[in-house]
Amino acid sequence: MRHAQTQFVGGPLDGKVLPVALTMAEQVPKRYKVPVPATADQPAYELVYEREEFTGADKRRRWRYIHVSS
What we know:
By secondary structure, the chain is mainly beta. The protein has no helices and five strands. A five-stranded mixed beta sheet has the order 2-1-5-4-3, with no helix packed on it.
């Protein structure tokens, strides 16, 4: 399975670049969900990121994830 190094913007993963598995169409998924386990203070929840297209410094089209909700 192929992966793409994908940038995350906003939320707890802001500034991180993580490998994301590509779909059959060789793209990152439209929505990326990160499960966060429960702690003594909080119940379990999901961080939700949505794909956004942007132009990189090298003028190539790229994808990144923008934080939508937690």
